Amino acid sequence: MFQLINPIYLFGLLALAVPVAIHLWNRKEGNVIKIASVELLEERETPRSSNVKLNQILLFVLRLLILIFLTLIIVEIRFGKTIKAMEENTLVLVEPDLLSHEKVLQVLDSLNNSGMEVRLITNDLSLWDPEMPIPKIDNQQNHWSILKEANLQADQRDRIIMITSSELSNFDGRRPEIATEIVWMDYHNNHTTVSPIEAHIVGSDSISFTIAESDFQGTSLKRLVETRYNSQDIPGLPGLTIDDGFVSVEGKNKLTRVDSLKNIQVVIGYSAEYRAYNLRLLAALETANHFLPENIVIDNRIIDDHFSLKNTQADALFLLSDEPPAFERNEQNQKLILLNPNKEEITGEIITASDQQKNLYYLAPKADYSKLPLQLIKLFSSTNVLKTVNWDQRGIDETQKQVIVSSDLSEDTDKAIWASLNPYFWVVLLLLIIGERWVAHIKKS
Predict the structure, then answer these.
(1) DSSP 3-state helix, strand, coil percentages of the chain (rounded to 5)?
(2) Which of 183, 270, 297, 406 could pair with 179 in a Cys bridge, judged by C-beta atoms 3.0 to 4.6 Å apart?
(3) Which superkingdom, per the lineage (predicted)?
């Protein structure tokens, strides 16, 4: 398999007409000079005619080859070779929710028939069986974690094909470092969902909801007050009912009365170098405050010699600093949000919970902060966040799906390895020039 980098320069081969024309011109017979007698002419040994003709032909061929290889160097030919069979070394991962799409099933059948292994994006990466019913997945799967797990299980794979809906909620945390080529096949759900994400009782006969309207392009929030106070489904909000003075979703997640809620006390400490992040956080808190039943009270302070958290009774503490001050906190009741020590760009959740301590969270310093108000609502809502359908339908940008390519990425992969032939052409050209000069010297002598 060949590839021409600069094919337009093939017109340079027209230059071959120059030595051809010179050669044909030199083949003409010389002028005939008539003399009276040859008796006075001395005899002299002359080169054999056959040797002269051979040198001329050889010189002609060498000069043609020099022009040909010079043109090929400018064109730059690359040779491609496939190391392994892609079909045998490719792992296909697909979201279970997409198995209901006929187009996706056709693609999976084609990939499976070509020898590729197809697995589901689940915790155990179970094999796809077209005869089995579509599995129901209760929790969203973090695609970054799935890719890391698949890379560990399939370290000899040349390629992993991810068939996903590319929803932002499926990408949480730091991009993984993968030593395998990743190919994305996206099937977007082109629809809009309208779902409640928070609700509370107002007075004696009303319910206040925070409604999220979301599609692939983005999510917007709005308030809705429902005055009907009975056990019927609320119009436009399927599966959500009011019964015995409580709001519930399929009999779960009973919500408290608004008069029992207290203010949310928030303390923010920030270093001077994180002033810009502090302003973004303040704006996000103000936005979230419009959609929470509680009122957020903010104590915003710069971290200096006078900064102290002794006897702080705040419900949440944000410390935007590379070296946050040490203090004793109540892990049961106080939420602590620190800057994520990983400075690389984060996709998905900006605020992630720690696996080591209760009520400890990390805030990504490099992320899309337009998502922060939604996550603050989840963080501060004293009522249970309503577990309805996945309401966040926002999509992820193509550039955000690029994984970190491992430095030890093997070159022994199932893809075209393009190698330039120019180094070999230069060697041949040098030999041709040396040969041409040598033959020209012999002819002249």
Answers:
(1) 30, 25, 40
(2) 406
(3) Bacteria
Instruction: Please indicate, yes or no, whether residues 77 and 123 belong to a single structural domain of this protein.
Output: no
Residue 75 DSSP code: H
User: Taking residues 133-137, what's their average pLDDT?
Assistant: 73
pLDDT in tens, 79-132: 754 444 455 678 888 988 888 888 888 888 888 887 788 888 887 788 888 888
CB neighbour list of residue 347: distance below 8 Å, 6 or more residues apart: 144, 168, 171, 172, 173, 175, 367, 396, 400, 401
Which residue range is the domain that position 155 belongs to? 86-188+397-415
**Average model confidence (pLDDT) for the chain?**
75
**104: helix, coil or strand?**
helix
Residues 243 and 314 both lie in one domain: yes
Query: Residue 92 is encoded by which pair of tokens?
Result: 């296909």
Please check whether residues 219 and 357 belong to one and the same domain.
yes
Cα(273)–Cα(122) distance, rounded to whole angstroms?
Answer: 41
Residue 315: closest CA among 353, 258, 268, 383 = 268
In a domain, 268, yes or no: yes
In contact, 281 and 333? CB cutoff 8 Å: no
Residue the block writes with tokens 């997945």:
137
Q: How many residues does the chain have?
A: 445
pLDDT grade for 333, boundaries at 50, 70 and 90 = confident
If you average pLDDT over each of 375-384, 394-403, 428-437, which comes out highest?
428-437
**DSSP code of residue 305:** T
Residues 422 and 411 in one domain: no
Rounded to an integer, what distance in angstroms lies between the CA atom of residue 346 and that of residue 334?
25
- Closest by CA to 350, choosing from 372, 379, 335, 321, is 372
